[in-house]
Amino acid sequence: MIQVIVNGQPEALAPDLSVFGLLEARGLVGKRVAVERNGEIVPKARHAEVRLAEGDRLEIVVAVGGG
Amino acid sequence: MNDPLVIAGKAYSSRLLVGTGKYKDFAETRAAIDASGTEIVTVAIRRTNIGQNPGEPNLLDVLPPERFTILPNTAGCYTADDAVRTLRLARELLSTEARRHDLCKLEVLGDPSNLFPNMPETLKAAETLVKDGFDVMVYCADDPIQARMLEDIGCAAVMPLASLIGSGMGILNPWNLRLIIDNAKVPVIVDAGVGTASDAAIAMELGCDGVLMNTAIAAAGQPVLMAGAMKKAVEAGREAFRAGRMPRKFYSADPSSPAQGLIGS
């Protein structure tokens, strides 16, 4: 397992998991979300190829009501 | 389109921009947005909830980007870096293969108790974002000098507060707003402070190009009814501005009816 931080929460994930795999596990595939990994955007087109690594910090965001 | 509002090269027929926060539910959000006639709606960017039911509707399903121009904000950001990161995520979220979504609302706050903008951080973030290709609509102090600086950086619109965010205190300093309007070549949009329809009309009569509001609609007793009132107020204020008001005559009356031909004279 690898240790990563997802939206501020520590999580243990399978090694070699892709960003797509992470979204899939959360039921977020096909939803309007955006992903940042270690401060850099992971474009949608690269979700399947980008693999998570030990210590990664991920942000998964969505649009919510706001002014 | 008659008298459009043009922002970053795109023309809009409505001059009212509406926020999507604080409504009772998504149905009320959509009904109020529809009643307001707005074409530009602001949204916030937040972390997905861990354990959130993935079947729950998403705001963007209720307000589809094909129908509305989505204006992602940086509400809650207190540094230029956080604001820039948030808007890069927003761009990724809202872009499609066909079109990059560059339009954004920058706000860098300075103090949670008054939500006044931190202008040095706002200017810094604006520079970075404009260089990165964003079309930046920027919440700012009602300071004509800094509004000009933001315009010089290349912001697409300057959006001074009329009074504190969410306060509903109305247009507290019309003189400063006029100074900003008279100096600006980009649209000036009052962002924050409008409480009721007359406030929106006053902003438009001053010559603002548009008004952005959220709480004035969402916190009204009947939000959908207030949304319709705001639509009319913005339109009425704009038409009054274009028509040009009569000069004020202090201490002298002038009858509208003929002074001659009165019976018994």
Automatic annotation (TrEMBL), chain A:
Gene3D superfamilies, sorted: 3.10.20.30
InterPro entries for the chain: Beta-grasp_dom_sf, Mopterin_synth/thiamin_S_b, Thi_S, ThiS/MoaD-like
A Pfam match: ThiS
Superkingdom per UniProt: Bacteria
CDD domains linked: Ubl_ThiS
Entries under PANTHER family matching the protein: SULFUR CARRIER PROTEIN THIS
Record-given protein name: Thiamine biosynthesis protein ThiS
Lineage: Bacteria, Pseudomonadati, Pseudomonadota, Betaproteobacteria, Rhodocyclales
TrEMBL record, chain B:
Gene Ontology molecular functions: thiazole synthase activity
EC number: 2.8.1.10
Reactions accelerated catalytically: [ThiS sulfur-carrier protein]-C-terminal-Gly-aminoethanethioate + 2-iminoacetate + 1-deoxy-D-xylulose 5-phosphate = [ThiS sulfur-carrier protein]-C-terminal Gly-Gly + 2-[(2R,5Z)-2-carboxy-4-methylthiazol-5(2H)-ylidene]ethyl phosphate + 2 H2O + H(+)
GO process terms (BP): thiamine diphosphate biosynthetic process
SUPFAM superfamilies: ThiG-like
Enzyme kind, highest EC tier: transferase
Alphabetically ordered keywords of this record: Cytoplasm, Schiff base, Thiamine biosynthesis, Transferase
Keyword Amino-acid biosynthesis recorded: no
Annotated metabolic or biological route of this protein: Cofactor biosynthesis; thiamine diphosphate biosynthesis
Domain Thiazole synthase ThiG: 7-258
Active-site residues, as the UniProt record annotates them: 105
InterPro entries: Aldolase_TIM, Thiazole_synthase_ThiG, ThiG
One cellular-component annotation, GO: cytoplasm
Location of this chain's protein in the cell: Cytoplasm
List of residues binding 1-deoxy-D-xylulose 5-phosphate: 166, 192-193, 214-215
Family: Belongs to the ThiG family.
Function of the protein: Catalyzes the rearrangement of 1-deoxy-D-xylulose 5-phosphate (DXP) to produce the thiazole phosphate moiety of thiamine. Sulfur is provided by the thiocarboxylate moiety of the carrier protein ThiS. In vitro, sulfur can be provided by H(2)S.
Subunit relationships: Homotetramer. Forms heterodimers with either ThiH or ThiS.
Protein name: Thiazole synthase
